[in-house]
Amino acid sequence: MSEFERFGLGTPEPVWSSAALERAIDRELASSPASDLIRRVHGLLDRAELSRAHQSFVLDFVRALMLKAGTDLGDLSWLGAAIDAPAQALLAVYLLPEERLDPDVVLAILARLEGTDSFEEAVVELQDAVLRPEAARRLFAARPDLAKRVRAALSH
Amino acid sequence: MLDPWVAGVRDIKQAAALWLSEHDRAGLTEADDAKLLAHVVSQTGIDETRVFDVLVDHWAEVRADASSAQHKAAGGGAGAQLKAAGHESPPIAGVTIHPIEDTSWIDERILMRTSATDRKGRVYGTNRNPNVPPIEVFNPRFWEVRAGDLERLIVERKHGRFQEQRDALSPVADEVLLRVNREDPISARWVGGGLSLTGGHHRTWEIMDRVAEGKMDPGTPVRILVHE
Questions:
Q1: ipTM of predicted complex
Q2: Which of A12, A42, B31, B191 is the most buried (most CB within 10 A)?
Q3: Does B211 or B191 have the greater pLDDT score?
């Protein structure tokens, strides 16, 4: 069982401690690149709905990882195309570099987070990408209802 | 043509100082902001997508400098400085607030516990906003509370209890459990009506257990690093 499996990420209420999370990241980074670690955590989040604990875990994980590995986290091109669960979408919000946030990826992320407590936060986090003309056009063309919610979130 | 007040700006800190003073004096319009930002980009070469973040960081720094100058001129202590920065009196009975004179031990990992955001509303420490929040934004102080009050004071936690950590703390002596661990202090944010715990979850559970089991005096003082 990997260190991260013990946190119960696929359950409604994952449990961890900051010390255990840091240890787990250190051990994984000692033997594999950050992108592999992200892929493993992403895989463990594939059944996860987005409880408050999941929201906290994803942010804690990203912050701890970036403090240790920096902003260059390797090739994350797969991440934008692998958003099946809301927790995976939130992971993409925090991790994907700006150049990976093309209109289709932005649309996939926001559609997956629609109806969750993290939707408004995701819109705010992705505002630079969402407000690009091509992304806004794509959003309005594909999901005018979602585009209205995005606009409402940005005006708050 | 740039307004003279914008044209005089040569570096990011100067821009932050100007921005701060103009905001305090009369408020800036979005057009003013845009003018200033465009000028800062041209003068400093800082990427436009980052300039807001950098400006906000320096803004906090400038504000802290100004606050410090006022503080020195007024001859006030740390308590006066906290008051000048708009800090609350203890919002509930039984809590004593202690200012932190030396914040140099508060490292990046602790600063990342903040819920504060940058000017665009983005949290710190992600690829959207990879900056570490300035100490002025984090705004740390110690709250001393009674161990017996922890249960009612803590209204939010980030996660549930991790058995491995629970087992590790069980044999730890009271003095060690209660000592402020500068690498990983018990920390929280005041969320109105209670504390939202951001660090030291298992230590607070262990303290609460010991009080409930009669192994620890409920009046035992516990220090919590409270921040924004």
A1: 0.94
A2: A42
A3: B211
Residue B203 exposed, middle or buried by CB count within 10 Å (0-12, 13-18, 19+) = buried
A14: chain B residues, CB-CB within 8 Å? 159-160
Adjacency order of strands within the sheet including B221-226: B96-99, B141-146, B221-226, B187-190, B195-199, B154-156
The per-residue pLDDT for range A5-54, each reduced to its tens digit, is: 999 999 989 999 999 999 999 999 999 999 999 999 999 999 777 999 99
CB contact under 8 A, A63 and B112: yes
* CA-based nearest residue in chain A for residue B130: A71
Return the H-helix or E-strand segment holding B39. Answer: helix B30-44
**A92–chain B Cβ distance below 8 A for any pair:** no
Average pLDDT, chain A: 94
pLDDT tens for each residue of B90-137? 667 788 899 999 999 999 999 999 999 998 899 999 999 999 999 999
pTM over 0.80: no
Judged by CB atoms closer than 8 Å, whether chains meet at A71 and B127 is answered as yes
CA distance B227 to B138: 6
Asked whether the beta carbons of residue B123 and residue A125 sit closer than 8 angstroms, the reply is yes
Give the rounded distance of the alpha carbon of A47 from its chain centre.
Answer: 14
Name the amino acid, one letter, at B116: A
Of B117, B126, B201, the CB nearest to A94: B126
Chain A contact set for B158 (CB, 8 A): 53, 56-57, 60
